From TrEMBL:
Entries under Pfam families matching the protein: adh_short
NCBIfam families hit by this protein: PRK08303.1
Protein name as catalogued: SDR family NAD(P)-dependent oxidoreductase
Coiled-coil spans in chain: none
Domain of life: Bacteria
TM spans (from-to): none
């Protein structure tokens, strides 16, 4: 598909996970994509992961777009200034996917017994970075009608479900930014909203469960919880975002938080393996219904 041919996109946090997959799927539709993040082939980041923004840019180009790698630490306004200057005078699609807070999460620890520095770092990585990116890059989006800004979060509801107070604040804060963008950008005939994946089979998650994309089912109910049976690749959300970017009526979603499974039902795409995971239905019909995940038929939710 070439329905984004001629469009300029910036993806923050494009090194891995949803950021990388979104960049690639935008490229697959013909977009020029600036892939921004901290980890390069010459210098790492505190995440200590092997993926690089150069890798992402090459994947974008191989998919049919034009990928450009730009090193950017989104905690540093000067770095974002440099990114802005390298892009030029317009951005048609801005994907705000900075995170980098996983290493600060303390699982199963009461907040008051956790590290305050770690808690503040989660919020700083999740919210300050988004505010800095938006402050510097939004002028390029609103310079002409039709721009699209998508915030990326975890979860489509503000009901608290853990795992920690700082994490909840970080992710619900991103949803709040998306709601505000929906109102603010409409004044300039642009659209702002938020998206979320379901149970994500990211590079980090696969490593955590000691499996690969080819063997991930081996971890279900063992190293991974039984819910992992309805997990999805980052490209599932990436395809949803690409569909939004190509939708001439995307403004109808302004201010909303859309999940990968909601986008799937709207646009009819599938994950890389041809299945259509529905994490939302799994939550409602299995978890909330009190059914043991092992007793549910995963085929009904894929």
């Amino acid at each position: 598909m070439t329905d984004l041919n001629g469009k300029v996109a910036v993806v923050t946090g494009a090194t891995r996970g949803c950021g990388r997959a979104i960049a690639v799927e935008l490229g697959a539709r013909g977009a020029t994509v600036y892939c921004a993040g901290r980890t390069t082939r010459r210098s790492g980041s505190p995440m200590a992961r092997p993926e690089t923004i150069e890798d992402t840019a090459e994947l974008v180009t191989a998919a049919g777009g034009h990928g450009l790698a730009v090193r950017c630490d989104f905690t540093e306004p000067s770095d974002v200034d440099s990114l802005r200057d390298s892009v030029g005078d317009r951005v048609d699609i801005l994907i705000d996917d900075v995170w980098g807070g996983d290493r600060f999460i303390e699982w199963d620890v009461p907040y008051w017994e956790s590290s305050l520095d770690g808690a503040l770092a989660q919020v700083h990585n999740a919210l300050d970075t988004h505010l800095i990116a938006l402050h510097r890059l939004l002028p390029l989006v609103v310079s002409r009608p039709g721009g699209l800004v998508i915030e990326v979060t975890d979860g489509d509801t503000d009901v608290y479900a853990g795992p920690t107070i700082p994490y909840y604040l970080a992710k619900s804060g991103v949803r709040a930014i998306g709601r505000a963008l929906g109102a603010e950008l409409a004044k300039y005939e642009c659209t702002g909203l938020t998206v979320t994946p379901g149970f994500l089979r990211s590079e980090m998650m696969l490593d955590l469960f000691e499996v690969t994309e080819d063997t991930w089912r081996d971890a279900v109910g063992k190293k991974a919880p039984a819910d992992f049976v309805v997990s999805e690749t980052p490209h599932y959300l990436g395809r949803g975002v690409a569909a939004l970017a190509a939708d001439p009526e995307v403004s109808r979603f302004a201010g909303k938080t859309l999940a990968s499974w909601t986008l799937m039902h709207t646009y009819g795409f599938a994950d890389l393996d041809g299945t259509r995971p529905d994490w939302g239905r799994w939550l409602k019909e299995v978890r909330e219904a009190g059914i043991e995940p092992e007793q549910a038929d995963p085929a009904l939710f894929r």
